Amino acid sequence: MPAEPVRARRPWPLALLRALRLLGHVLHGLWTVRRHFPRLDETERARRKQAWAQRLLELLGVQLRTRGVPPAAGSLVVVNHVSWLDIVAIDAVQPCRFIAKADVHRWPLLGALVAGAGTLFVERASRRDALRVVHLAAERLQAGDVLAFFPEGTTSDGGTVLPFHANLLQAALATGRPAVPLGIAYRHAGAPQRRHEAPVYTGAMTLLASLWRVLRAPDLVVELHWGAAQAAQGRDRRAWAADLRAEVARLAGLPPPAGH
What we know:
The protein is α/β, with parallel strands linked by helices.
């Protein structure tokens, strides 16, 4: 499915006004996680995260569409990765505890915000750190958290699903918890069959440059398509990861990986 070229039709003064409102919203969110989250229970934290994410999408002018049933407690969500916006869109439907690469912690403002919201950070180049996070993830699944991670390990251009890294699936295998595939796609509001490239965050693009592209896009829709929960059913983590990749591609409306 081809991507539609970005057409910056929203006037830059309007986009700048949205950016200023967005900054205020991010700062308020950072204040909330630092001031209030330590004394809130998990249910109230989730409620506030969801409301904050929904408001952020509204400020960005991004429409949200969802299909399927969000996961039950104690599930591991496996999702393709296109943009920094993925986390916001998912939280707007189903607040999750994310597992993210340590680089995210260094993002301006947003890094501190996602850390305060309970994200588990992993140094992907360190096998020892990956094992540490697998153990933490297993503990959180047993405690009933909904965990979400991006097994591609990086963002794509939205036109394909990259090969999955299987390590973190060990947490679901060790606890007997299900994995829930989720396909995410960005579309044009007036042409839902076409991918929208404004949110794509790859290569040398900076976070601020990507944010500006989103702010200038007047017709951006994010689609979340939840699949059915899967048990491992005797598969090892690599075989399970390959099957989940194929299902995520299907849910995102993308071609199946080779071999499926």
